[in-house]
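G.,

No rush on this.
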Amino acid sequence: MEGLRILSPSEQVAGHLRKELLRGRWIVTMPGVPSLAAEMGVNRKTVDAALKQLDTEGILVPQGAGRRRAIGVLPEGLTPPPLRLGILLYELVDKRVDYIVEILHMLMEAGHAPFFANRTLTDLGMNAKRVAEFTEAAGADAWIVLAGSVDVLNWFAEQDFPTFALFGSASDSHVAGARPNKPPAYRKVVRTLVELGHRRIVLLARSQRRKPEPGDSEQTFLDALVEEGVQIGEYHLPDWNDSKESFFECLDSLFQVTPPTALIVQEAHVFTAAQQFLAGRGLKVPLDVSMVCSDPDPTFAWCEPSIAHIRWRPQPLVRRIVRWADKVSRGKGDVVQSLAKAEFVNGGTVGKVRE
């Protein structure tokens, strides 16, 4: 008969934590030693020893000094716990975009608990400190961030919880992400417009796509103008602060002295606002001004003349997010950044420069 083995305090704590982990109490990262010790009423050295035991078993993965332990890969056959996924939108209008709604529904079907944050990046001023305070109070296991700036995404990359950057300036941030590969399409847009006689070509882009440095698509636009012999300046990528009022002030300024003959506008609803501005001034598209939208929109199928735009399929991006959420829920790391194919679709809003 085997002798009765008395478990040490640290082994007892490790056993308790192991059971809690396997039933999905904690997801993605483990609480720190102080909070666990306070919860269980044991000293910190005992908790620290228990966590180190779980490290050796591969259940927990140390992330370095001062950082929470990651939760390792779940045993085969164990259903991964659902993730509480916060979706941090750029602005409120994003909530009505078809593929954003599809992301929400597909994550729900996969067994997760996604929710739209009650503040947007615009509400938070794209300020990393304010974003930090807000996300800490929101209580999500992981975040999906739409069109985040460099500073905001760099902050998310430094956190213990996983983050997925949908669009935005994620190329230099150590987070998972997906976006359309627009630079080749921008080059085609510029070449097409120049061939039609356009040289006063303006790209209306959000501030986080211009500051502190132009994004990939915006830099490609400027480079393509230079390649076509256009001397570039602030005129071609003007400054505005992302508000409706600032947008129309920018357009007013552009059309006062040397009006553009072509506008490339990022986002379909901003494109519509620019169309309204031109109509209010009695300017016809494309007779007076050619227009290109940097994104597709379902309403374009109903427009006459047809809308010139950059087309990309959102479904690969949606599926990529669902795969990422599945990996994260199983304790697997994923910081891969994916690109979806994008192409320029010419249309009736582009024409020759008026003589």
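When you get to it, here's the other one too:
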Amino acid sequence: MVPLSILDLVRITEETDARGALHNARDLARHAENWGYRRFWVAEHHNLASIASSATSIVIAHIAAGTEKIRVGAGGIMLPNHSPLVIAEQFGTLELLFPGRIDLGLGRAPGTDQLTLRALRRSPAAADNFPQDVVELQALLAPAQPGQLIRAIPGEGTKVPLWILGSSTFGAMLAAELGLPYAFASHFAPQQLMTALEIYRSRFKPSEQLDRPYAMVGVNIIAAETDAEALRLATTQQMSFTEIFRGRRSVSHPPIDDIETFWTPVEKAQVMQMLARSIIGSPSTVRAGMEALIAETGADELIIVSDVYDHQARLRSFELIAEVAKQGES
């Protein structure tokens, strides 16, 4: 089995406020490093009532301070929202505080809507500069050059490993051109997964950071003792995606017994298209799904979202997934 990592949404729920969500994220990371997960990533989102990771670098520091060995990082920082210099300073500082444990995944989407983007004082056109911003960020994290006038302090010389994140072929082409590892967001945008991986691998150019392609695949996995219980737990995520299509911004809802009473047939079709790569079930069902996904994609690593409402049930889901992976290695 390939290495497993976690993408945590730091969910605010009907019963858990933002402080509780941040506490739960650190608690999950503490368990995850004991279960053998390689990384624990959080993502930049803004103006979403259900997600508490908007101040992403601070959340990473909070999680890294509560753990000892697991890599912690951004999956990702939406670089068009920021100056590359500021991100180099933030993640250079994190690398100095937690040496050898920080990852910096970069995306070009805003992670929010256009109105909130204006509140961030960023232009929608900023995304057009994403490739140049990535190169600038790389340079700021590299050792300073003679006569360099703009320096990231802290940051320069830390060489924080960069990742390109994507849900289309654009990120695949950029990651290949720059010789960076690539993470595909098939946990919510699975349609171009195989095409993007083929482009990335076929066009990859070795770099100082990476000598061969390295592809990480995002996947929703919800595990429970039985298929029926896992399917029930999955209704929380299904409701969250349904509310995206309804234009609502609400906290995460507890699971329900019959999801068909919540969504319309059209909403169901929309949501299931986004969640088409999900693996939901008992350990045996999860094992079969993970093995099939790895065989199909040739993934070097899986990064898992397990969007379960109850914290203890979410811990159990990730524990079962880790047990499945260990059994696959024996």
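The mean pLDDT is 95. The first strand starts at residue 4 and ends at 8.

Enjoy the weekend,
O.
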